[in-house]
Specification:
By secondary structure, the protein is of the alpha+beta class. It has 2 domains: about 35 residues, no CATH class; about 100 residues, Pantoate--beta-alanine Ligase, Chain: A,domain 2, CATH 3.30.1300.10. It is about 35% helix and about 25% strand. It has 3 helices and 5 strands. A 3-stranded antiparallel sheet has the order 3-4-5, with helices on one face. It has a two-stranded parallel ribbon with strand order 1-2. The two termini are about 30 Å apart.
């Protein structure tokens, strides 16, 4: 193919594919498609069908934490952003946080300064029996 489309929801996977295409000098243009969200903010995913009604409600905290980080990125320190986002998630019954990080969108390394071109907040958590991932670009 000349073009391949991948969902931004799988941010780390898309970045690795882009890096592999560049490394192997493949003639394929990789396009990252924006996350599509339900009206309540939950990122659309095939895994959502495994959520109970209560799990689905609890899962909303992932987007809420990401949105908090985006809304407060210019005003709070990185440690304050991370601490609050993690506290939001950890306070939600039925949600077990795997990770929440703010990373460089080009390297996936955690950032230590806000002076990066493409910061991204990334989260993974087990909601009920279902592992969910989500992310939010912070520079848009």
């Amino acid at each position: 193919p000349d073009v391949a489309f991948f969902g931004q929801k799988d941010f780390q996977q898309v970045l690795m594919i882009k890096n592999m295409v560049a490394y192997f000098n493949l003639p394929v243009h990789i396009i990252s498609c924006p996350i599509i969200r339900e009206n309540d903010g939950l990122a659309m995913s095939s895994r959502n069908i495994h959520l109970t009604a209560a799990d689905r409600q609890n899962a909303l905290v992932l987007n809420e934490a990401l949105q908090f980080v985006k809304d407060n990125f210019d005003n709070l320190s990185l440690s304050e952003l991370l601490q609050t986002a993690k506290e939001m998630i950890n306070a939600t019954k039925g949600v077990a946080l795997d990770y929440f990080t703010i990373a460089n969108g080009e390297t996936l390394l955690p950032i230590t300064t806000k002076q990066v071109d493409n910061p991204v907040a990334l989260v993974a958590a087990k909601v009920g029996e279902t592992r969910l991932i989500d992310n939010m670009l912070l520079s848009q």
